[in-house]
Amino acid sequence: MRGRTAGVSVWASMLLLGLFLQGCEKGYRQVVVVDGGKAEFVTVGQAPKRAPKLWVPDRVLVFRTSSPVPGAPAQAVGEAGHVYRINDDLKMEEIDKFDLHIPNDTLAYRYGG
């Protein structure tokens, strides 16, 4: 009986350690704010060490002005006050709308992945 209890305790400890390490893997939230044809990465938390790429799946784009995304395909145009996510097919999908008065860091916290 003691051996089984010890085994369960070790298994539970390893599970908790794995969950903790997974949670520590990404300690930031990030979005790209598009404003007047310029794109700026806005990060809440410690930024990644590598330079991020703009046009990749799961990237979240927040538009302050209606404009195209710099460095993206020509059909990549967003509307002011809209939030888009780039899907696996590298197409923009609208996920939400926001008030243009909300600051960039709040948008990064709210929508950043």
Detailed description of the structure:
With 113 residues, the protein is an alpha+beta fold. 27% of the residues lie in helices and 31% in strands. The chain is built from two helices and seven strands, in the order αβββββββα. The chain has a five-stranded mixed sheet with strand order 2-1-3-6-7, covered by helices on one side. It has a two-stranded antiparallel ribbon with strand order 4-5. Strand 1 and strand 2 form a beta hairpin. About 7% of the residues have low confidence.
Task: Put the structure in a nutshell.
The chain is of the alpha+beta class. It is built from 2 helices and 7 strands.
| Class computed from helices, strands and strand pairing | alpha+beta
> Please, what is the oligomeric state?
single chain
Task: Specify the helix fraction band.
Answer: 25-40%
Mean pLDDT across residues: 83
β-strand number:
7
Characteristic terms for this protein:
two-stranded antiparallel sheet; 27% helix; five-stranded mixed sheet; 2 helices; 7 strands; alpha+beta; single chain; 113 residues
Helices and strands in order, then pairings?
Layout: H1 2-24, E1 28-35, E2 38-45, E3 60-63, E4 67-68, E5 77-78, E6 82-86, E7 92-97, H2 104-111
Parallel strand pairs: 1-3
Antiparallel strand pairs: 1-2, 3-6, 4-5, 6-7
